[in-house]
Every structure is written in C-alpha cells, then in structure tokens.
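The authors assume throughout that readers already know how a fold can be written as discrete tokens. Each protein is reduced to its one-letter sequence and a matching series of backbone shape codes. I therefore recommend that a typical entry be quoted early in the introduction. For illustration, here is how one protein appears when written out as sequence plus structure tokens:
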Amino acid sequence: MVDQEKGYVVFTEEMKKTHTILVPNMLPMHFKMIGKVMSRSGYKLELLETSGPQIAETGLKYVHNDTCYPAILVIGQFIDALQSGKYDPDKVALILFQTGGGCRASNYIHLLRKALQKAGLGHVPVISLSMAGLEKHPGFRLTLPLIMKMMYGVLYGDLLMTLVNQCKPYELEKGSAQALADKWTDRLAEEMTAGGKANYRQVKANYRRILDDFAAIPMESRSGKVKVGIVGEIFVKYSPLGNNNLEQFLVDEGAEAVIPGLLDFCLYCVYNNLLDRKLYGMQKQVQFAYRIAYRYLVNKERDMIEAIRDHGRFEPPTLFTHTVELVQGTISMGVKMGEGWLLTAEMLELADKGVGNIVCTQPFGCLPNHICGKGMMKPIKERNPNVNIVAIDYDAGATRVNQENRLKLMLANARQREHGGAVRENEEIPA
C-alpha cells in the first residue's frame, strides 16, 4: 500500500522476511558478490540475468520511447520478470541505485513506479539504494559494516573483472578464467559474511591468492591481440544486456577488452562533492567527511594496484588521482552530469596506457554522454593522434548487425595500422 505521507510503497521490516528483492544486472561479477553478501545479511536478493529482445519490447510498452535506453532495459527486465510467472507479485520487491545527481538515472525509480502502475503491479515496493538517503525504507538499511563489505565487493569485483579480461583472450581452455572468477566470487562473499565483520587485512591477502590462481591458468602468448578500451554510460558500458555482450564479442574477434573499474565511478562521485566546495561553497563540515571518504577510497585503490604491480604478471588499472591529472585542461571539472568529465578522463586514461582503440558506448537519449563522449572525441584525438575512437549507439531501434560491423571495421583498421596501412570505410570488413 502506498504510504500517503511518502507517496510510494514502503519496504517494511516484515517484507524483509518474506519478499525476494530483484536486482538488475549491470556488473555480473560485482553484483553477484554484493548480492551474496546482502543475502547473508538477511536480505533475499536475486540477480536478474534474463536477456533477449522481449526485455526492450516490454520496456517500450510501459516507458516512453524518448526515455534513455538503460531505463527502458532496466524497467523492461523488471516487468518481464514479474510477468513471467516465476515470482509471486505479492512477495517481491525491486531495487534501483540512485546517485542523486542531475542525470535522469536519479528519476528511473519514479519511471519504474509509473510503469508498474500501468502494468497493474503498483503494489510492488521499489527500494532506493542511495548513499544520499533520497528515500527511507524501514526494512532496508545500509549499516556501516554492510557498506564496508559492499565496498570490498567493489574492490574484489574490479580485480576479478580486470584479470578475467586479461586472461580470457589467451586461455587455452575456454571458460576457465570466468569459472575461476565465479569460484572466487562465492568464496569471497562467504568469507566476508562468515565472521560478521569485514577484515581488510584478509582482503589484501586475498589479492595475492587471486593473482596466483589466475596466473596459473594455462594461456598462450600474450601478444598479437588488439586491445580495445570500453567507456561510456555506466549501464551500457558494463551490462551485457545493455551492450549486446560487447566484451565477449571483442574476445571472439581476437581482441582484449580493457575496462575501467567501478571504483573509479565511486571516486568520481565523491570527488565531485569535493569540487562543490570550490564551485558552489559547500559547508566545510560536509566537505571534511567527503575528503576522508576520498582519501580512504584512493588508498584502497592504491593497495589493489600495488598488489597487481608487485605480482608482475598482469597490468594494473590506473590510479584515480592520475586520471584526474590527465583530464586537466581538456574539459571543465564542473561538467558532472551523468558520467560527465570522467568519461573524457577514461578515454585519456586508456590512451595514456597505450590502448589505441576505444569504443564509446552511447545509449539513446543520454545527453551527457553525447557531449562528454562523442563531443570530446576531436580534442582527445588532437592530443593523441594515434588513438582510434568509435562511438557506438545502443538503443531499442539499433540493429546488432550494424553495431558489430562498425566494431569489425575498427578492429580491421587497428590490425592494418600495425602493418602500416588503413582500411577505408567502403572496404570489405573481414568476417
């Protein structure tokens, strides 16, 4: 029942015992781990892994087609699940993450509730997962210990994603890297919840064990593969549903995907709040709290990077502070709607690492990404003439064939450049 004072269906303490909370699948490894941690903390979470054209079709049925593509997919996936018969609509809840920023993603939750009403499912609670505390749900509380475990899940997830992407194109036994990541996901989730309190010393020790396990995977020579960076709107950048399984497509085409981690986006959000003091005069005490959080997260990222570097087998991500340095003078740091300046910074970061090919995933209706992604391609190329950036549009009307053909042309150009030539737009694309 809708709470008349709050204006939405509240997730109560009683619902915590009886309801299954459905989670949209943006980052499979990260969300699986975080979901398992929360499940062991008393919540019944289930990660939706459904795919297929019916997801977008369902979203378009209940959401205006001018809405940004990630909203169409997330809402479509939720309603498709509720209408599948797999779940009892009276014993299920949905959860969405809200940053509280100016991007329309902060309004997905209201679009979802409106869509649920149209589908006759208006009684289903929608939980707002937000560090900004945009909504209150008595049955869903983020305690400090739980937040710490979720943050460790982000660190582990970034590490596993990095290692899987660096192993998958070279593994002799296909699927071995992903199988190892799944094994570690289960182990780490159980470990973080078994003792009741997250232990960061154990986290650092696990870094070495994880690196050793991935280094033991039988692999062919790590040469001859084209490296392709993936940037863009956060959902389409990471979600296999949103980008038509872009990472696997690149691997199948003989390339290695390089993707900046989720922790960078978390740091971006915190760093923007520090900028607000300079730009808008934020209160000093609020800035002090964000400064502590920023230093904490940077130190945690540095620990992970040093663990990878000391191990010596794999290439570590870029420290966020260096990413911030790279973007100075290219785009204003006040451009922070959606992915904002971080999108430009990630392209510069990839170029700085020697990744000469970048896919900028652009969802329909995402104005910040078209400005900070496609709109910044020219100045980025002026700074890095050898970088090839391709913007790929993802929306309900875009065909997968066209997307893959453009990607194949990019890869053909990349391989041709290695041999001193270039493929023109009208040349035949290798199959």
Q: What stands out?
A: The first strand starts at residue 2 and ends at 3. Strands lie at 2-3, 8-9, 20-23, 44-47, 92-97, 126-129, 226-232, 255-258, 357-363, 388-394.
